[in-house]
Amino acid sequence: MSTILITGGAGFIGSHLTESLLARGHQVLILDDLSSGDMENISHLRENNSLQFFHGSIKSFQTLDELVERVDLIYHLAATVGVYNIIQSPVRTISNNIGGTEAVLRAASMKQVPVVLASTSEVYGKSTEAPFREDGDVVLGPTSRARWSYATSKLADEFMALAYWRERHVPTVVVRLFNTIGPRQSGRYGMVVPRFINQALHGRPLTVFGTGQQTRCFTYVRDVVEWMILLPELKQAVGKVFNLGNPSEVSIRDLASTVVRLSGADVQIQLIPYEKAYDEGFEDMERRLPDISRVVSVTGYSPKYDLETMLGETIDWFRLQRGR
Predict the structure, then answer these.
(1) What would the pLDDT profile of 46-89 be if each residue is shown by its tens digit?
(2) Nearest Cα to 263, choosing from 200, 210, 220, 323?
(3) Which segments of 180-255 are extended strands (E)?
(4) Which domains does the chain carry?
């Protein structure tokens, strides 16, 4: 079995990945500064002797080098995420994402440790060529709009990861995540599903930004983790970018209606203009539809969970947290 480092392993996706890797018999080291992660996410795993947690930053070269020396694979999930963070703290977003990824890749290159880099569907920006293909063009807005700083930082991360593969032969795999949802996801950074669920369970109106006609494709965290575990095991995945998503589209207005129905909440749906929710001139994407033919072809795995199952299980988890 392998020893695996997960940066950001106490976060939403990181905790599920940790859980699955431990179940497969691997040793897992987590490095997390808990700026967005939460120890509660991995509390049920802390008694597992195959897990070690290290509280620290990926920008601490000494800590990072010592951990990388011990491992066979790195999952780099640590990043500043969420629309609210992007708008309110663009300097921190850019610095953390680009600087952190460079630190991880530099450390990995010392021992040629494979790296799986978590990127985002945000990199497609305002492209209208849906479904989005990994080799398609990206269309971003102007630098005067802080909205696009996150996508730009993640694109730089992707370029860097692929450059380390081409020039320094560090085996890298880039995964672009499309609206991953599930238990343990926090709504504090603007993620729509946990925000809707929290509003419904607290009896508040569900606030839909914009017209609500914009569509998204939501992917269950279990499907994402399965792909993330399969990809680094395959030689044909190295040096490539993969969309990880579920191509079933839903409008944000319909998503809100589904959360209301599944939760049984007696609440209204309220439309909020973008400029009131974020800032004046905020730009959004009308569609974010993934082409997942590449990852399905390489791994043989397709998404197993539909939207109602994802939402139902996530609502159940939020209810359980409220009852504690």
Answers:
(1) 999 999 999 999 988 899 999 999 999 999 999 987 666 777 77
(2) 200
(3) 180-181, 206-209, 215-217, 219-220, 241-244, 249-251
(4) 3-181+218-247+289-305 (3.40.50.720)
Taking only the tens place, the pLDDT of each residue in 189-235 is 779 999 999 999 999 999 999 899 999 999 999 999 999 999 999 99
pTM for this model (two decimals) = 0.94
| HSE, side-chain direction, 13 A CA sphere, residue 95 | 6
> At 156, which helix (H) or strand (E)?
helix 149-168
215 and 246 in contact (C-beta within 8 Å)? no
- The two three-digit tokens of residue 239, written as one number: 């040096």
And the tokens for 27? 């040793």
Q: Of 219, 222, 223, 224, which Cα lies nearest the Cα of 307?
A: 219
Residue matched to tokens 């998204």: 216
Active site members? 150
